[in-house]
Every structure is written in structure tokens, then in C-alpha cells.
Amino acid sequence: MFKLPNLPYDYNALEPRVDEETMKVHHDKHHKGYTDKLNSAIEKHPELFEKSIEEILGNLEAIPKDIRLAVQNNGGGYYHHNLFWEMMSPDGGGEPTGEILDVIIQEFGNFNKFKEEFANAALTQFGSGWAWLVKDNTGAISIIKTSNQDSPITNGLKPLLGIDVWEHAYYLKHQNRRPEFIEAFWNVVNWDKVSELYIS
Ligand code: MN
Fold this sequence. Notes:
Elements: H1 20-42, H2 53-58, H3 65-86, H4 98-108, H5 111-124, E1 129-135, E2 141-147, E3 158-164, H6 171-174, H7 178-185, H8 191-199
Antiparallel strand pairs: 1-2, 1-3
Helix pairs in contact: 1-3
């Protein structure tokens, strides 16, 4: 069984950047929903419980057809939210340091240019989805956007930083104003986690 992780901080810990009510609904309803539906799908092929979620999403072709779409959607939702909570922190924000900053500068010119391109990807993702900073198997980083809960790891890309731009991630506080949510997000980005993901 895949287990819904607890948030690594209190529901209100990201206030005022991300509000308590959104965190409660997002974790306790949406993330729990993905987790439960992933488990129900995999119960039909319980041998898959031996695999990690990364292994499952990394090779969706190997998943039996009768549950593949359910696993793609709910497995993606499960995995992405596991990452998302850790990619934010009450002590987050500011700028990264070390290797991740070096590679961001190398790829995007400077940190503000990176922020601009990432925010633009988040803003222009049409409908539900995510914007990501990812690393490929050569170590190169890039910004991508994905629809629904399609996972970068299905395309061999490792997520380093992701922003959830499904309306459920911001609608209670920001209604249709996605740019406000993206702006608030920069203040809670857990660069230590991004850095750890980059070097591991
Ligand atoms: Mn979400």
C-alpha cells in the first residue's frame, strides 16, 4: 500500500504565502484522493506494491493496460504531492546557493531569468498541470510543463522543483489569479531540498 505522508510542517506553517485552508483541502482531500485511488487500482495487480512509485511511473508501459491510466493519473498525483510538500518550507524563499545556483546561472544566465522562465511556464500551462525544473540523465537542467498528473519521470526527467497549477492549489485564496499564487510560491521554495535533489 502507498501511504499518504504527513505534511512536513503544520497546515498553517506557510501562512501568509500559502493559506491553511488550502493546505488542509489540498493534502487531506486531494492528495489523499490520489493515494486512495492509486491503491485501489494497484489492488487489482498487487504484485506492483513491490515497486516504488518512481519505478512505476518511470515505466508506465510495464503497467497492465486495465489500470494504466488510473496509475498514470493517481500515481502521478500521489508522487508529485509527496514532492511538492517537501519542495516548500516555512524557512524557504530567497536564492539557492552552491551547485544548483551554478547550474541555474549556466543554463539561464542569472537567477532572475530562471524565475521569469519558470513563472512563465507555470502561467501558460493551459488547464490543470504543473511547471517543473528538471534534470536529465546527462545532468542538464531545463524547465518543462506537464498536463494533469503526467510525470516528468515517465519521460526520464527528474523533478527538482515543481509548482502545482491545478486550480485546487490556489483557488480558495486567489480565485482565478494564478500569477499571485506563483509570486507567493517563490517565498516558500525549499532550495535546500531542490539542491539535495539536484546532487543526489
Ligand atoms: Mn494538487
